[in-house]
Amino acid sequence: MKDLALITGGAGFIGRHLTNALLARGYRVRVLDSLIEQVHGDGAAPRGLDPAVEFVEGDVRDGGVVARALAGATHVVHLAAEVGVGQSMYAVERYVSVNDCGTAVLFQALIEAPVKRVVVASSMSIYGEGLYRTEGGALVEDAVRKARKPGEPWDPLGSDGHPLRPVPTPETKRPALASVYALTKYMQERLTLTLAPAYGMEGVALRLWNAYGPGQALSNPYTGVLAIFAARLLNGQPPMIFEDGEQRRDFVHVEDVAQAFVLALEHPAAVGQVYNVGSGQDRTVNEVARLLARAMGREDIAPQTTGQARLGDIRHCIADIGKITRELGYAPKRDFAEGLAELAAWVAEQQAVDRVAEARRELEARGLVA
User: Fold this and answer.
1) pLDDT digits over 207-264, tens only?
2) Identified catalytic residue from 95, 127, 181, 330
3) pTM of the model
4) Total domains, the chain
5) 87-101, 202-216, 330-344, 347-361: which has the minimum mean pLDDT?
6) According to DSSP H, which parts of the chain are helical?
7) Same domain flag for 228 and 248
8) Considering the domain boundaries, does residue 370 fall inside one?
9) Is residue 181 among the annotated active site residues?
10) Strand, helix or coil for residue 270
11) Angstrom distance (rounded) from CA 193 to CA 187
12) Which domain holds residue 153?
């Protein structure tokens, strides 16, 4: 009998790509997903799942449903989560309930029906600001941006008042939890790495950077930034960029993310470990917006920078993927330009409701944008 992998939240963007990767490796795959409207649309059925996937509709906070979904499983990938820094700062109960209570319910069921290995999707957001260096070369792990006055720099400054330079952030950097979302992802990570070995299971946590690719929810204003930009451009609207757009991020193709999950499920060295998952390349948000507009044939639409900051956002966080490369053999395969072209071709065949302005008004009304 083939191994059975349960993927919570498996009908989502990353989950669908992961199901294909696992089926290709001979796994049987079962998906548990609640098909929430913000991600899947109103009254949606699971779309994009291979017919070979067994689908269970239900909430990860429902112990009975989780127990049934676990029946016979040998591996679990825990993707089910509410996603988005901005929204987490006002939908606090929802984020904590789904992300943390949902993980607790999952492990309560796993105590009764343990599996070989559990891999949880954590997030780069747990680092807060990434790692920096001073002009003299000293590492700074605890960079914090103070409230900014007009005309002051967006970037964190050292204790001497001089600019700090962002450098790749390794897994050894201390967490600095700057949003409710970050708090909940760190809790998911720690629950997995604490409870799995306590009950004879293997636990692994993957800290994901900004995943992109075809199949992302274009009408969700709290999804990945490339999908948000694509929805705006598709509707003839400029991408809206907070701050000045020079914040740096790592964008990793969803197929490379799926590769990392397969390695985390199978590699002996992964047990008990935390790994960054990115592309190993960083770009400014401004650059990414321009490249996407070009790929979509909308170079006539220039991005708009708001000059405002969202509470909970960080300035720079660049992925150091050395550990997962050395220990698991992870190697990002997808070129960014080719990935953008693929995304643009897929977006051209979609329809998207642009809810970005609505989401921004919500944040502003709650004092979360300044």
Assistant:
1) 999 999 998 877 666 667 888 888 888 888 898 898 999 999 999 999 999 999 999 9
2) 181
3) 0.93
4) 2
5) 347-361
6) 13-24, 37-40, 63-70, 85-88, 92-95, 102-112, 180-198, 225-234, 254-266, 285-295, 322-328, 336-347, 356-365
7) yes
8) no
9) yes
10) helix
11) 10
12) 132-166
